[in-house]
Amino acid sequence: MFNWKGSLLALAMVSGSVWSQDAFIVRFNLNEGMKTYLRANEFDITGVNYKTNEIEALLTQAELDQIQQQKSAVIKFSYPQSLSAGPDEEYKNPDEIEDFVRDINARYPDITMVKSIGKTLEGRDILAIKISDNAATNEDEPAILVNAMHHAREVMTPEITTDMIEYLTSGYGQNEDVTKWVNGTEIWVIPMFNLDGNNKMWNDNSMWRKNTRDGHGVDINRNYPTGWNSCNGSSANTRAQDYRGTAPASEPETQAMMNFVASIKPVFNISYHSYSEIVIYPFGCRPNKTPTAQAVEVVGSEIAKKIQYKPGTAWELLYNADGGDIDWMYTTHQVIPFVIEVNSTNEGFHPSYSKWRNKTVLRNRPGWMHLFSRLEGPSLTGKINIADYSVIKILKPGTNEILQTYNINSDGRFYVILKAGTYDFSFEGSKLKKLSNVSVANKVSVNF
Ligand SMILES: [Zn+2]
After folding, report:
1. Is the pLDDT of residue 288 over 90?
2. 149 CA distance to ligand 1 centroid (A)?
C-alpha cells in the first residue's frame, strides 16, 4: 500500500534538487468522467495506459487533496516517479543535439545538410538535418518530415530522431532499403524542437513542458492556427501546462515550423511525444473524423500495427486537443501527419536510459520505416503544368461525391496518399481532365 506521508518526507529530504515542488504522478481509472474532471480542473494529464485502462496526472499535494475530497473513489493507485532526480544524464540537452547534428554532417557531407529553420524565443537556432543523395540541392523527390520534442520533458523523443539520423546515414550504401530511401526521398529531421524548454527542464524544473515565454511558457503544441482555442482543448490560464498563448502562432517556434513545412511540403510527418504508446492522427477536436480522413486513418493504423501501439484521434485516445501541429499540417498543407507517443505509463517521461533507450528506439524503427515504404503504396503521384491544373478532386467512381481535395504543389508535383481502392480523379484549373475508374492498389504515376 502506498504511503503518501512517507513519500512526501522522502521527497522533502532531497535538497538542492532540480525538482523542488511537492508533486506526484497519480493514476486513475480511465473513463470519460475522470478525463472530463481532470481537464475541467486544468490538471496536468501526463499519459494513458490502454493495457491497464488508467490515466495519469502530475499533481501537487493540494491538487491531490482536492481530488481525494471530491473524487476519492476513483483513485486506483499512485506513486512518486523519481521526480526529484530528473532524467538520466545520458539524455541529450540542446548543446549535445547541436554537436550531434554537426558531427553527422561532418562525417556524411554528401548526403546531409544542416539548416536552421528559425530561432527560439531565447535565440537558439532550431536545427533541421536533411538526409538525401544530393542533400545540398532541391531535388524532384517527395519529402518526409520527422520532429521530436514539442514538449521539453519528453526526453526519449530526441533519442528516436537521433537514432533515425544515425541509422539512415551509416546505412547508406550498406543497407539496400536505406540506400533506396535516401536516394528517392528528401528526409528532414528536426531532432529537438523545443530547445529553450529543454534547457529549462535540465536546469530548473525536470517536469517543464512548454517554451519559456515570460517565465510561464506557452504550450507550442496548442499554438498552431488550425482550430486554435476551438474546442476546450487548451487553456487560457498562463499557469496551465496546455496554455495556448495570446494568439494563434504567437510563438517563434510555431512560426518557424509553419514556414518550414510550407517550404518543403512533406508528404508525411511524425511528431514524437511521450508517453502512452499511441499513434494519433487528425483531428484533435471531438467529433471531427470525416471521410476525407480515410488515408490518414489507414496509414496511422498501419504504423500502430508495426509498433504495437494503439491508433486513434486525440479526442478518442486522450481528450480534446486544439491548436496542435498535425491538424494544421493536415488542413493547410495536406501532409499525412502523426503524433507518436512513445513509452508507457510504467516508464513515464524519464525512463532509465540503460534499461529503456535502446528498447524504445528499436521498437519505434518499424514505425517510421513504414512511411518510406508507404510512398510506394496506394497513392497517386506525378507532375503536371501548374498553369493548367491546380487542384485534384478524388471522387467516388461514377459519382460527383468528393472524397478528398488535393492542392497541387507550386512546382506541379503531387503525392496523394490513398486508401487502396478505385477512384475517379478530376484535375481542375484553367483546364479540366478526368480519369475514371482508376484502380489504386499501389503507386499510380500520372503524367499528361
Ligand atoms: Zn507531448
Report:
1. no
2. 7
Centre of ligand 1 from the C-alpha of residue 154, in Å: 7
The C-alpha cell of 413 is what? 508535383
Q: Does the domain spanning 379-446 belong to CATH 1.10.8.100?
A: no
**Closest Cα partner for 162 from 220, 115, 94, 208?**
94
C-alpha distances in Å from residue 378, one per residue of 299, 419, 440, 444: 10, 6, 6, 7
The answer to whether 222 and 171 have CB atoms below 8 angstroms apart is no
Segments of the chain assigned to CATH 2.60.40.1120? 379-446
* Least confident among 153-162, 248-257, 285-294: 285-294
Distance of CA 404 to the CA centre of its chain: 23
Confidence label for 333 from pLDDT (cuts 50, 70 and 90): very high
Q: Are 214 and 256 in contact (CB under 8 A)?
A: no
Tell how far the Cα of 152 is from the centroid of ligand 1, in angstroms: 8
Q: Note the CATH architecture for domain 94-374.
A: 3-Layer(aba) Sandwich (3.40)
According to CATH, where is 3.30.70 located in the chain? 4-79
CATH code: domain 4-79 is 3.30.70
Centroid of ligand 1 to alpha carbon of 220 (angstroms): 10
Q: How far apart are the first and last CA of the chain?
A: 71
Distance 396 CA to ligand 1 centre (A): 37
pLDDT over 70 for what percent of the chain? 91
- 274 CA distance to ligand 1 centroid (A)? 6
Three cell numbers, residue 435: 480519369
Task: Answer whether the bond into residue 338 is a cis peptide, omega within 30°.
Answer: no
> How many A from CA of 390 to the centre of ligand 1?
36
**Extended strands (E) in 71-111:** 75-79
Bridging pattern class, strands 54-60 and 125-131: unpaired
C-alpha 157 – ligand 1 centre gap (Å):
9
Tell me the CA–centroid distance for residue 161 and ligand 1, in Å.
15
191 Cα to the center of ligand 1, angstroms: 14
